[in-house]
Design goal:
The chain has 512 residues and is mainly α. It has a single domain, classed as Sodium/glucose cotransporter, CATH 1.20.1730. Helices cover 74% and strands 0% of the residues. The chain contains 21 helices and no strands.
Length: 512
């Protein structure tokens, strides 16, 4: 216990110290929200990766999908690396950095507002962000409950309070730069931790080959009648596995807290390095998490009574104290990094996109930073309160909160992915097509939450439904754009002129 507490105190001490150290970078809005657009490749890549993977992935998704699909769940992690990291950086990185700086936009709703000269579009996008990021933030705490109870025997509520307070301190003090540096430290812990944990867990079952042979002998007629389904290449249910890959991989292209990382890139060289680093990070962390979860059926877990969240803790419970302490720090790192990214995105969106120039006129830069800091506290408090309420309440109605956490990713990406992508590449994208995508993405996911039985069987799963809204948006936006009022030609040409500004080459090919 002394060792576990000592490692926690050291970890939290470093996080707070970094926040205090980075205060000078958070003096204005550009510095607090984007780190002055001068963040290096290692910090940006690790900030992207650690914001991507949280306790929801390590404890929740890895356990659930590893149980359902066996070793084939590793495809989810590889999809996250190739589609969610490599392709996202290659397709979005450079163009996002160039156009957002040219338009002087610091958030995704602000980008939509300036790209289409529409205050209403900016407010609409910010409302969607506000509605769906809070429950997503609350879901981060869920993966920690069983792990802390196993390692420390302390109540879940104290875990929430501790994580909330310490994350709030370093985000409020140092803003984006403190978050990026802490993400780098937390990312190193995640890389080392996941490799050590996989080796240790499989070691308790005789190593990789023995574990794979044991998995081949597992059968579950309710899932598949095929022998060896859980150690097969595509698992017992390839179609639903594909839905998970699409949602968790392509979804990052439309999540405000992920895309915002590209706003802060410093130079062209940093894009190339960041692409490689973030991809390798995702291969190890995401691939490792789902690979580990694929062996969950080798452990005696009564999923029907304790749920999927108990699978990974059950796999870890027999490890030495030193490794359990490392796992606790690993999951804390994953959760705090994602939490810090989400609260910066939420608070900056509320301040810059909803309050500035609408409810509060003539808001100075200093006042904006102060309000963003205040809203960081508010968002952390609300998300923590939701998490505590969900755990302690016996009311079945609270299940809607848990379901909303599940659909939030699909709603955000389903609303924003297609409009944002086409806005960077296609001059004919119209304001109406953005509105239709917003309404379709968030509307379908809300209907899935409250009227799931009315959907076709394959879309009753929030995972498949979220993947459907993303792919549908890629078709809806160009169709609506072709049949709606054309955008103002001068506005479009002005926005796309930033790509043609001459540096050593056209800036669409080189930031330097």
């Amino acid at each position: 216990m002394f060792l576990k507490v000592l490692m926690l105190v050291l970890f939290f001490g470093i996080m707070v110290a970094v926040g205090i150290y980075c205060r000078r970078h958070a003096a204005d809005v550009n510095g607090f929200v984007l780190g002055g657009r001068s963040v290096g490749p290692w910090l940006t890549a690790f900030a992207y990766g650690t914001s991507y993977f949280s306790a929801v992935i390590f404890i929740g998704y890895a356990g659930q999908f590893g149980w359902k699909y066996g070793i084939a769940s590793t495809w989810i992690g590889l999809g996250n690396a190739l589609i969610g990291s490599l392709l996202a950086w290659a397709v979005l990185g450079r163009r996002t950095r160039i156009m957002t700086q040219y338009l002087n936009s610091a958030t995704m709703p602000d980008f939509f507002g300036k790209r289409y000269d529409s205050t209403a579009l900016k407010i609409g996008a910010s409302i969607i962000v506000f509605i769906f990021l809070i429950p997503y933030t609350a879901s981060l705490y869920n993966g920690l409950s069983r792990l802390f109870e196993m390692a420390f025997g302390i109540p879940y509520v104290w875990c929430i309070v501790m994580m909330s307070v310490l994350t709030g301190i370093y985000v409020i003090a140092g803003g984006y730069m403190a978050t990026a540096i802490n993400d780098f430290i937390q990312g190193i812990i995640m890389l080392v931790g996941i490799v050590a944990v996989i080796a240790a867990v499989l070691g308790t079952r005789g190593g990789f080959v023995e574990s794979l042979n044991a998995l081949a002998a597992v059968s579950d007629p309710s899932v598949s009648s095929a022998p060896g389904a859980f150690n097969s290449f595509f698992g017992p249910d390839p179609l639903n596995l594909l839905g998970v890959v699409i949602l968790t991989s392509l979804g990052t292209w439309g999540l405000p807290q992920m895309v915002q990382k590209f706003y802060a890139i410093k130079s062209e060289n940093h894009i190339h390095k960041g692409t490689v680093i973030s991809t390798l990070f995702a291969v190890v962390v995401a691939g490792g998490c789902y690979f580990l979860g694929g062996f969950g059926r080798l452990y005696d877990v009564d999923v029907a009574s304790v749920g999927y969240d108990a699978i990974i803790p059950a796999m870890l419970s027999g490890l030495p104290d030193m490794l359990i302490a490392l796992v606790v720090i690993l999951v804390l790192s994953a959760s705090m990094s994602t939490l810090s990214s989400l609260v910066i995105t939420s608070s900056s969106t509320l301040t810059i996109d909803l309050l500035k120039d609408h409810l509060i006129k003539k808001m100075t830069d200093k006042k904006q930073v102060l309000l963003i800091r205040c809203f960081v506290v508010v968002f952390i408090f609300i998300s923590a309160a939701i998490a505590v309420f969900q755990v302690q309440s016996k009311n079945d109605a609270v299940k809607y909160i848990a379901q909303l956490m599940g659909v939030s990713w699909g709603a955000l990406a389903g609303s924003f992915l297609a409009p944002f992508l086409y806005s960077l590449y296609w001059k004919k994208t119209t304001k109406l097509s953005c509105w239709v995508s917003f309404v379709f993405g968030s509307g379908v996911m809300l209907l899935n939450l409250f009227a799931r039985s009315a959907f076709p069987a394959i879309l009753q799963s929030p995972i498949n439904c979220g993947a459907f809204t993303m792919l549908a948006g890629l078709i809806i936006v160009p169709i609506v754009s072709l049949f709606s009022r054309k955008p103002d030609k001068q506005l479009v040409e002005d926005a796309f002129a930033c790509y043609e500004r001459k540096v050593p080459a056209a800036q669409k090919n080189s930031l330097d």
